[in-house]
Structures are given as C-alpha cells and as structure tokens.
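Late entry, written up from scratch paper. The run itself happened at the end of the previous shift, but nothing got recorded in the book at the time, so transcribing now.
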Amino acid sequence: MNDITTRLAVAGLEKSFGAVRVLDGISLTARQGDVVSILGASGSGKSTFLRCLNFLETADAGTITIKGDTVTLGQGPIADERKRALRLHTGFVFQCFNLWSHLTVIENVMQGPLHVLRLPAAEVRDRAEALLNRVGVLERKDYYPAQLSGGQQQRVAIARALAMDPDVLLFDEPTSALDPELVGEVLKVMRSLAEEGRTMLVVTHEMGFARDVSSKVVFMHRGKVDMALPPAEAFGAGRTEQFQQFLANTRH
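Output as recorded:
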C-alpha cells in the first residue's frame, strides 16, 4: 500500500446473509484513473460487494483500504462516526437514482457538501451548478425529481456523487432501470468521467462500456472473482469458461 496511485485495495472480503455466503474472499485493487467493470449473473454478489465498499453493508471479514485509510472487518462493530468518515471516500450512484423527492435538483446536489462537509452555501451552489452543467441538466436545476426523465434523474445522481469530491465512484447498475433510449445519455457522462481520469467501479450489464471504457474487467461467479483482466484479454483469449458461458447467455 505504499503506491500513492492506489485508490482502492480490497483483500479477503467475506459476507454472508444467514447461511448464504454472498462474498467469498473477494480481493481487488484499483489505481488512480482505473475504470473497473464488474460483471456477473444475478446473485453473484456484485451489488453486495459495492455496498460493502460504501459501508451500506458491513462485511464479515477482510480489509478495505481507500486512499490509504484501512478498515479491518470482523473485529467487532464499526462505530457510526468511523463509517461516515470512510464513506466520504466514495460516491455511490444507485440503480434507482435514490434522489430526495421533496428537494429540487440543485438542492439534491447541495445536501452533502452543505450538511456533511459544511461548506459555505454560496460555494456549494456554484459547485452544484457547475456539476449540473457538466452532466447536462443545469436547465432543470429548479425541477423536482418527478418532473425529470429517468436518464435526467440518473445524471443528477451522478452530479450529487461528484459534489462530495470522492476518491472512488461506485456505480451499481446505473442504466438498468432506464428505458433503452435513455441509456446512452448516462453512458456518455460516465465515459467522459473515465476520460477525466476518475477512479470508478461499475457494476454493469453494458458489455460495450465494459469492453471499450474499462481498464479492467472483473467477472464474479458465486461470490468469488472468477476473472480480472484487461478488456482485450477478458473478451478475447483470456476469458474463462464461466465468463464464456455468461457472455453466451447475455447475448441470447
């Protein structure tokens, strides 16, 4: 962990729900600017893994290090204050947007910097407007989420995550709740974030994004990392038998 470019390192992460082992010794590293696409069938543990990185779920064992800040799981409860501090390292973009329905678009983006980071309101508003412009929805800043399309809501959710200036962005199937015609506008924003050098972990079923944008493709199978390769290898000669079967089923 002396490599200053390492943004995220996970070792031996385990998580069970009752008798069901959902994560079985997951290890993964992402360096500054890496875009890691995480693929796998439903139930393979992808979303649980991402939620453990953001401490929306607490893993049973293993270590998580984000920008040099390490927590070891399985040694007793983690204090809420510690979880909040660790959560500041990551920005989470949910599958179903999770915007606050009673707040306007700009208020949604301003909440974290105002109430968690306690930054000055004028500074927060300026940054929120810049981010909304960045994702192409500035003209909707005074609208409420219900007045937006799904694609617009997800772009607001991305702006909200960026507003906290996280070290790692976590995307949990960010396009799966969208109508097909709206997927492209969200992927365009995500591609531009990758071009900026943002460190991103993306649980996705978008094979084109995984192939064209990723620096690493991780395939999870039954709670384990079955494959972690550069996309040219993952979609080429390096693919595993399980990943080959997954691709065949996905195409079907």
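The chain is about 35% helix and 25% strand.
(Scratch paper discarded after transcription.)
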